[in-house]
C-alpha cells in the first residue's frame, strides 16, 4: 500500500512575490522510497501525477490547501482525489489524534536545527518530511489512527526504526544512497527482487481436494510459470489422486517451455490425537522416492481408518512408522500446534513440537501464514518465539485453494454444495479459509509485501527446496506371477521366472493350435513364432497365461465368456489358447494392430462376461491373488452443466423448480461452449431440436435475473470434481501389496480396495489392468440357452454354429434385427435391407461402416456391392488392400498396411500413424503427414493423390473400428441372430427379461414379438415370474415390468404363491406382507390384468367405489385386521380361526369396462397395449379404406406412391423452429408398429386442431410427405 507525504516551504528570495517550494515523496508500508522530488519543477509534473495516482493515503500539513494551490499554481496537473484517504496532520488533531497532535512547522524546524546542519537545505527539507512521517506512524502505533491496510504493530515498529535510521545525521551516506544515487537504489531493488524471486508455494490444493478447491492442475502450472516460480507443491486434502497428472504436466511444461520447475508431492492429512476428540490438518511432503512411497502408505492406511466418517485420518504412531524420506510442516490455524497456541496451551504446544523434532529432526519446519485471519498474528508471534528459542527453522507460506482473489466466491459455492448449506448460512465455521479472500496464489511482489520483515523464512524455504530430490514414479512393468500347475519347473536351470512362463506359453499355444487348425503348415508356424517372439520380447507370456486361466475358470463355473473384443482378436496365439473365438488367419486380421516390438503402453486384453458372471470372476481373482493385491479402479464424477446449474440454484436459494426446468434444456455441451459461442456456430454442431432449446436458454438468460446469476456462477464451478466412483470394468492385479506403489481407498459399499489413480494413470505405474466387462448380450444369450436346453439339450456349444447358416443370413437380409446386438437401430435395419448381405464378411464390413466417420461411404459400398457402381482406387496398387471393402477404406488396419506399402513405413511407424489419427493428435499428425508424403513421392506417387488419401484418413479413422474388434462383435451378433431365427420364442423371452426396467424398449420388443407371430400373455398373478417366462409357447409377462411394483413386493408374492396358488384377492390379502404388497401394487396388478384369472371377476370391480372406498381398499383393511388377529391368536383362548368374528368383504357387481377403457388403463401401467389395440374394433372399416399397416408402409417408402395409413395418436410434441415458428412432432401407431410425422407451416395451420392425443387419424402420404389428414 502506497503513502504520499506532501510538505512545503515559503521562499521570498529573488522574487517580487512569495513562492512555495514543495517537498514530496511516495513510500510503501515499510518506508522504502518509491519516488522523491525536492520541488515542483516542470519536469516533475508527470512524476507527481503518477505518484498521486498509485497512492491510497495522502498525508501532510494543510494538505487540502496544498492540493488546491497546486491546481491553481500549475494548470497542467490533473488530479482526482475523491477515492483517496486524505489525512491533514495540521487540522485533524482534535478529531483524529484526540489528545495527541502532530508537531507544527515551528516545532519541526526547531527539532531539525538540533540534528542537522542549517546550511544544508537539501537535507533539512528531507528530514522535515521524514519527521512528519515518523510522527504519523507513531500515532498509528498508538492506535490513534486506524488504517485497514496497516494494522500489524510489528510492521509499524520496523517502519519507525527505519525512519530513525534515515533521520540520524551521523549517517549522511545513507541519505545520499536513498535520495541522491538512483543507480545505487536500483541495484538495491534488483537485489531484493532477485532474493524474493526464489519464493515458491507448497500449500497448493487442486480440485482433487473434492469440493474444497477450484483449481485445476493445468491452470495452477500456468500461473506458476507466469510467476516464474522454481518449484511448486501439491498438497491435496487426504488424498494423492492428482499426483500422476501433476508430475506429467510439470514434465511437459519443463520440456515445452525450457523450464526447470521442481515438483513437490505432499498431502494435507487429517491427524487424529490420542483422545480422538479432534482432528487437525497435517502437511507431509516427500523429499525423495522413499518418502513418496511412505506418503502412499499413510494415505492408503488413512482411508482404512475412517474414524470421523468423511475424514480419512492418520495417527502419530503411523507417521512415526513411515517418517523416512518425509518432511513435516507445522501447518496453518487448523494444525495441532496452532490450535494449542490458540487455546493458550503453550506448554503442550512446545511438547508436541518436540515430538515432531524428535521424529523428523532437521526435516521439521514451523510455518508462518498471513491471510488476515483473526488470530493469525497471535499464533505467528508465538511460533517465531518458539523458532528462536528452540532453534527450529521456520518458513513463510501461503495456503492456496483458488487461483485468483475473485475466485473466493466460487469456493464458497463449492463448500455450500459439499455440506448442503445455503450460501447465506454461517458456513462451516471450522473451515477457516472461507473467512478471508487471501487464500489465492500470490505473486512474489505480494509475498514480499507480506513477509519482507521475515527474510529468514524465505532463506529456510530455499534450504527446504534443496532437500527435495527429483524422482520418477514410473515403474518397469510389474505383472503378477503365473502360478504353475501341471508344468514342472526345473530348479537346476538357472533362468528367470519369465523364462518358464514363456516356455509354458509356447507349449500350450502349439498344443491348442494343433486342435484348432489340425495341420500346422509353414505360414501358420511362421505367424505363431512371430507372435510368440514379440510376446516374449515385451515380457508378456505371464499376462497371456493369467488371462487364459481366468477364462478357463469362468467356463468351469458356467459363466458365459465373450468371443473377444478389441485388437487382441488379431492374435493367433490368443485364438489358440482360447482367449478369442475368431480365426485371425481366416479373416485376415492383423497382429500388429494389437502388439509391436516398440509399443510402450500396455495393450489391453479385455474380456466380456455375462453380467452376473463378472461379479463371480472378480471374487475368483480376489481369492486367487489376495485382497491386498487386487483393486478396482476409481472414476471421478464432475459437475456437468446441468448439475452445476441445479446445485448453484439450490445453494443460492433461487426458485429450484424453474431453474431445474431450464437446466433440462441444456444439450450435450459445456456452459462456456453454450453461452460463449455464436448462434451460427451452435447451428453447425447441434440438431434442430437442441438448437431450439438453446435459443430458449439464451432468451431466458437475458430476461430472467435469477437464471443469469446462476449461469454466471455455474460456469465458474463447472468441471470441478464432485464425487468418486468405481470403474465399470477395470480391475488391477499386482504382484505385491497395492499400497506399496499406489494410494488406495476403501469402498464400504463394494467391500473392496479402490485405486486413487484413474485408469489413464495406472499404466504409468507399470501395473496390470484388466477390463472385465459385464455384457448384457451375453446375459441374453445365456438365458436363452438355458430356456432352450431346459427340456432337450439342443445347443451344446454356440461357438460351433456355422457362420454360413442360411436362416441367420436371411434374418439379416430382411433387416428384422430388433434385439440383435449392434444391428438393432432403425438406420441399421434400413441399411441391411439395402445391402442384402450374403456372408459373415459382409456383416463385419457393415458393422465397421455404420460409424460416424466411415458412414459417408456406406451408400457407395452398397451400390458397388449391388453392381450399381464400379470399384475405383486412388492407386491401382491399393486393390490388394481394398478389394474386400469395394475400394473403400473401412478398417484401421487398412491405414496401417497402405502406409507401409506407399511410404515404406515400418510396422511400428504404421501403428503410430493409426494411433495419431484415431486420437486426433495434431502435433504428431503434422510430422507423420510430412513423412508419409515424402515417402510416397520417393516411391513415385503423385503428391496430390497422397494428400487426398491423407485427407480421407483424417475424416474417418478417429471413429473407425479396427477389423479385429468388428469381427468379434459381429460374431457375437451372429450368435444372437442364430438364436432369434431358430428359437424365436426362447430368444425374445430372454431379451424381454433383460430389459425389464426400460418400458420404452419393452414396448418396441413387444411389437417385434407380435410381428414375429409370438403369443404374449398379460401378467398373471399365479404364472408370472419376476422376469418374462416361456410357458407352453406363450411368453408370460414379467411382474417387474409393471410400473410401481418393486423387487421386494414380487419376492413376497412369489414366496406365498409357491406354497399354494392364489385363489382370489381375498386370498392374497390374507397371506402376503401388506406393507410390501400395498394398495398401489394391487391396483397396478389389477390394471395390468394380473387378476383376470380369478373366477367371476373383472377389472372394473376392483375400482368400483362404494361408500367412498374401492374394493381393493376394503380388502386391504380386512387383510390388516385378519393378519393381526392371526398373529395374536396364541395369546387368546380362541383355538379356531372360525371363532374369530371378522366379516369378509365381497366383490361388488358393476358394469364391465369397455375394451377402450380397459386397454387405456393397461397402457398406463405397461407402457403399451397388450391384450388388444384401440383400432381392433375398427379393423373391418379401416380395411375398406386401406389394408396398409405402418410396418408395410415403412418397408415400401422408396416406392414413392400415394398411400393411406391409419393410426391412433400416442404422442404429440409442440416445438419451435430456428425461425421461432411452431410445428408438431406427432407419433401414431397401429397394431403393427408406430411412426413419427412432422407438421410444418401450412400443414401445421391446417391440421393442428385435428391432431390431438388418442385421436384416430387417416393420413394420405407420398413417401414420408403428408398430403392430407382426416379424422376417422
From TrEMBL:
Keywords: DNA replication, DNA-directed DNA polymerase, Nucleotidyltransferase, Transferase. One of its GO terms (molecular function) is DNA-directed DNA polymerase activity. Residues 200-273 form the Polymerase/histidinol phosphatase N-terminal domain. It is an enzyme of class 2 (transferase). It catalyses: DNA(n) + a 2'-deoxyribonucleoside 5'-triphosphate = DNA(n+1) + diphosphate. Gene3D superfamilies: 1.10.150.870, Bacterial DNA polymerase III alpha subunit, thumb domain, Metal-dependent hydrolases. InterPro entries: DNA_pol3_alpha_NTPase_dom, DNA_pol3_alpha_thumb_dom, DNA_pol3_finger, DnaE2/DnaE/PolC, DNAPol_HHH, PHP_dom, Pol/His_phosphatase_N, Pol/histidinol_Pase-like. Pfam families: DNA_pol3_alpha, DNA_pol3_finger, HHH_6, PHP. GO terms for biological process: DNA replication. Its EC number is 2.7.7.7. This is DNA polymerase III subunit alpha. It comes from Candidatus Karelsulcia muelleri.
Amino acid at each position: 500500500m502506497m503513502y504520499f507525504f506532501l510538505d512545503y516551504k515559503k521562499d521570498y528570495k529573488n522574487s517580487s512575490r512569495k513562492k512555495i517550494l514543495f517537498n514530496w515523496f511516495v513510500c510503501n508500508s515499510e518506508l522504502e522510497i518509491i519516488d522523491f522530488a525536492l520541488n515542483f519543477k516542470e519536469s516533475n509534473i508527470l512524476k507527481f501525477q503518477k505518484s498521486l495516482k498509485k497512492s491510497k493515503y495522502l498525508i501532510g500539513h494543510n494538505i487540502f490547501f496544498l492540493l488546491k494551490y497546486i491546481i491553481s499554481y500549475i494548470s497542467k496537473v490533473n488530479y482526482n482525489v475523491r477515492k483517496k484517504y486524505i489525512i491533514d496532520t495540521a487540522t485533524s488533531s482534535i478529531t483524529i489524534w484526540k489528545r495527541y497532535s502532530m508537531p507544527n512547522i515551528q516545532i519541526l524546524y526547531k527539532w531539525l536545527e538540533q540534528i542537522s546542519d542549517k546550511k544544508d537545505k537539501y537535507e533539512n527539507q528531507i528530514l522535515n518530511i521524514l519527521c512528519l512521517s515518523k510522527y504519523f506512524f507513531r500515532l498509528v502505533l498508538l492506535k490513534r489512527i486506524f488504517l485497514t491496510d496497516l494494522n500489524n504493530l510489528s510492521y509499524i515498529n520496523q517502519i519507525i526504526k527505519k525512519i530513525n535510521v534515515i533521520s540520524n545525521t551521523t549517517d549522511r551516506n545513507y541519505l545520499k544512497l536513498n535520495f541522491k544515487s538512483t543507480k545505487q537504489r536500483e541495484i538495491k531493488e534488483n537485489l531484493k527482487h532477485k532474493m524474493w524471486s526464489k519464493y515458491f508455494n507448497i500449500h497448493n490444493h487442486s480440485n482433487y481436494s473434492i469440493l474444497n478447491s477450484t483449481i485445476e492442475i493445468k491452470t495452477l502450472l500456468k500461473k506458476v510459470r507466469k510467476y516464474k516460480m522454481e518449484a511448486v507443491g501439491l498438497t491435496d486434502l487426504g488424498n494423492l489422486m492428482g499426483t500422476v497428472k501433476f508430475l506429467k504436466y510439470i514434465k511437459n511444461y519443463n520440456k515445452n517451455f525450457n523450464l526447470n520447475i521442481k515438483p513437490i508431492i505432499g498431502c494435507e492429512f487429517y491427524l487424529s490425537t490420542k483422545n480422538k476428540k479432534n482432528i487437525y490438518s497435517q502437511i507431509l511432503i516427500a523429499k525423495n522416492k522413499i518418502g513418496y512411497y511412505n506418503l502412499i502408505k499413510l494415505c492408503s492406511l488413512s482411508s482404512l481408518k475412517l474414524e470421523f466418517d468423511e475424514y480419512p485420518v492418520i495417527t502419530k504412531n503411523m507417521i512415526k512408522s513411515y517418517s523416512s524420506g518425509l518432511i513435516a510442516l507445522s501447518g496453518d490455524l487448523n494444525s495441532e500446534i496452532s490450535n494449542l497456541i490458540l487455546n493458550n496451551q503453550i506448554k503442550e504446544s512446545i511438547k508436541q513440537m518436540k515430538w515432531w523434532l524428535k521424529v523428523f529432526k532437521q526435516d521439521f519446519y514451523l510455518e508462518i501464514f498471513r491471510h488476515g485471519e483473526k488470530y493469525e498474528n497471535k499464533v505467528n508471534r508465538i511460533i517465531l518465539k518458539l523458532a528462536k528459542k528452540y532453534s527450529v527453522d521456520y518458513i513463510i507460506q501461503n495456503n492456496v485453494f483458488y487461483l485468483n482473489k475473485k475466485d473466493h466466491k466460487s469456493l464458497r459455492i463449492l463448500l455450500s454444495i459439499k455440506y448442503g448449506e445455503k450460501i447465506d448460512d454461517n458456513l462451516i465455521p471450522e473451515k477457516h479459509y472461507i473467512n478471508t479472500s487471501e487464500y489465492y496464489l500470490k505473486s512474489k511482489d505480494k509475498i514480499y509485501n507480506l513477509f519482507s520483515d521475515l527474510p529468514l523464512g524465505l532463506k529456510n524455504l530455499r534450504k527446504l527446496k534443496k532437500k527435495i530430490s527429483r524422482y520418477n514414479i514410473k515403474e518397469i512393468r510389474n505383472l503378477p506371477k503365473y502360478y504353475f500347475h501341471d508344468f514342472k519347473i526345473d530348479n537346476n536351470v538357472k533362468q528367470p521366472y519369465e523364462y518358464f512362463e514363456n516356455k509354458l506359453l509356447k507349449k500350450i499355444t502349439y498344443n491348442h493350435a494343433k486342435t484348432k487348425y489340425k495341420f500346422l503348415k509353414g505360414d501358420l508356424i511362421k505367424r505363431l513364432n512371430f507372435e510368440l517372439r514379440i510376446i516374449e520380447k515385451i515380457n508378456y507370456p505371464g499376462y497371456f497365461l493369467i488371462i487364459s486361466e481366468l477364462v478357463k475358470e469362468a467356463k468351469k463355473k458356467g459363466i458365459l465368456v465373450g468371443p473377444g473384443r478389441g485388437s487382441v482378436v488379431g492374435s493367433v496365439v490368443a485364438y489358440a489358447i482360447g482367449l478369442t473365438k475368431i480365426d485371425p488367419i481366416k479373416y485376415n486380421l492383423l497382429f500388429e494392430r494389437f502388439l509391436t516390438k516398440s509399443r510402450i503402453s500396455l495393450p489391453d486384453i479385455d474380456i466380456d462376461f455375462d453380467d452376473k458372471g463378472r461379479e463371480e470372476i472378480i471374487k475368483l481373482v480376489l481369492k486367487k491373488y489376495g485382497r491386498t493385491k487386487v483393486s478396482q479402479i476409481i472414476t471421478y464424477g464432475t459437475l456437468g452443466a446441468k448439475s452445476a446449474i441445479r446445485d448453484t440454484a439450490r445453494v443460492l436459494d433461487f426458485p429450484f423448480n424453474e431453474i431445474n426446468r431450464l437446466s433440462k434444456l441444456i444439450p450435450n455441451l459445456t456452459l462456456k461452449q453454450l453461452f460463449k459461442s455464436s448462434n451460427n456456430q451452435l447451428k453447425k454442431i447441434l440438431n434442430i431440436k437442441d438448437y431450439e432449446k438453446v435459443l430458449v436458454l439464451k432468451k431466458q438468460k437475458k430476461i430472467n435475473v435469477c437464471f443469469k446469476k446462476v449461469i454466471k456462477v455455474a460456469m465458474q464451478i463447472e468441471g470441478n470434481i464432485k464425487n468418486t466412483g468405481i470403474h465399470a470394468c477395470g480391475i488391477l492385479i499386482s504382484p505385491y501389496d497395492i499400497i506399496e506403489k499406489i494410494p488406495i481407498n476403501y469402498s464400504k459399499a463394494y467391500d473392496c480396495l479402490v485405486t486413487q489413480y484413474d485408469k489413464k494413470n495406472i499404466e504409468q505405474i507399470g501395473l496390470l489392468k484388466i477390463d472385465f466387462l459385464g455384457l448384457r448380450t451375453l446375459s441374453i444369450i445365456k438365458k436363452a440357452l438355458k430356456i432352450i436346453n431346459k427340456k432337450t439339450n439342443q445347443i451344446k456349444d454356440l461357438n460351433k454354429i456355422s457362420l454360413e447358416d442360411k436362416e441367420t443370413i436371411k434374418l439379416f437380409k430382411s433387416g428384422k434385427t430388433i434385439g440383435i446386438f449392434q444391428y438393432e437401430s432403425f438406420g441399421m435395419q434400413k441399411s441391411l435391407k439395402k445391402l442384402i448381405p450374403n456372408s459373415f464378411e459382409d456383416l463385419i464390413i457393415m458393422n465397421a461402416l455404420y460409424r460416424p466417420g466411415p458412414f459417408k461411404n456406406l451408400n457407395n459400398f452398397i451400390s458397388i456391392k449391388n453392381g450399381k457402381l464400379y470399384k475405383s482406387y486412388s492407386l491401382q496398387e491399393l486393390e490388394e488392400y481394398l478389394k474386400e471393402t469395394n475400394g473403400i477404406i473401412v478398417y484401421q488396419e487398412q491405414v496401417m498396411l497402405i502406409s507401409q506399402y506407399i511410404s515404406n513405413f515400418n510396422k511400428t511407424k504404421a501403428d503410430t500413424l493409426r494411433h495419431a489419427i484415431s486420437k486426433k493428435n495434431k502435433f504428431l499428425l503434422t510430422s507423420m503427414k510430412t513423412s508419409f508424403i515424402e515417402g510416397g513421392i520417393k516411391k513415385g506417387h503423385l503428391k496430390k493423390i497422397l494428400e487426398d488419401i491423407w485427407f480421407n484418413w483424417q475424416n474417418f479413422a478417429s471413429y473407425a473400428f479396427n477389423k479385429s474388434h468388428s469381427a468379434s462383435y459381429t460374431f457375437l451378433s451372429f450368435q444372437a441372430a442364430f438364436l432369434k431365427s431358430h428359437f424365436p420364442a426362447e430368444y425374445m423371452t430372454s431379451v424381454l427379461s433383460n430389459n425389464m426396467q426400460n418400458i420404452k424398449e419393452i414396448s418396441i420388443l413387444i411389437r417385434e414379438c407380435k410381428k414375429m407371430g409370438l403369443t404374449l400373455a398379460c401378467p398373471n398373478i399365479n404364472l408370472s415370474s419376476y422376469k418374462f417366462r416361456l410357458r407352453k409357447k406363450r411368453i408370460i409377462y414379467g411382474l417387474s415390468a409393471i410400473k410401481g411394483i418393486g423387487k421386494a413386493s414380487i419376492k413376497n408374492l412369489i414366496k406365498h404363491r409357491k406354497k399354494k396358488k392364489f385363489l382370489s384377492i381375498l386370498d392374497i390379502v390374507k397371506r402376503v406382507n401388506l406393507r410390501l404388497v400395498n394398495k398401489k401394487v394391487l391396483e397396478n396388478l389389477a390394471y395390468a390384468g394380473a387378476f383376470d384369472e380369478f373366477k367371476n371377476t373383472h377389472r372394473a370391480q376392483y375400482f368400483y367405489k362404494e361408500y367412498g372406498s374401492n374394493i381393493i381398499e376394503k380388502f386391504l383393511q380386512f387383510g390388516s385386521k385378519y393378519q393381526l388377529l392371526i398373529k395374536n391368536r396364541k395369546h387368546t383362548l380362541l383355538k379356531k380361526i372360525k371363532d374369530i368374528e371378522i366379516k369378509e368383504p365381497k366383490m361388488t357387481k358393476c358394469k364391465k369396462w369397455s375394451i377402450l377403457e380397459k386397454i387405456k388403463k393397461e397402457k398406463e401401467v405397461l407402457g403399451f397395449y397388450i391384450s388388444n389395440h384401440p383400432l381392433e374394433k375398427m379393423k373391418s372399416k379401416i380395411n375398406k379404406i386401406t389394408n396398409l399397416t405402418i410396418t408395410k408402409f415403412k418397408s415400401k417408402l422408396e416406392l414413392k406412391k400415394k398411400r393411406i395409413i391409419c393410426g391412433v395418436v400416442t404422442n404429440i410434441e409442440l416445438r419451435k423452429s430456428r425461425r421461432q415458428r411452431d410445428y408438431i412432432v406427432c407419433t401414431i401407431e397401429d397394431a403393427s408398429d408406430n411412426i413419427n410425422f412432422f407438421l410444418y407451416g401450412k400443414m401445421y395451420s391446417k391440421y393442428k386442431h385435428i391432431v390431438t392425443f388418442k385421436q384416430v387419424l387417416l393420413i394420405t402420404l407420398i413417401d414420408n410427405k403428408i398430403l392430407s389428414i382426416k379424422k376417422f
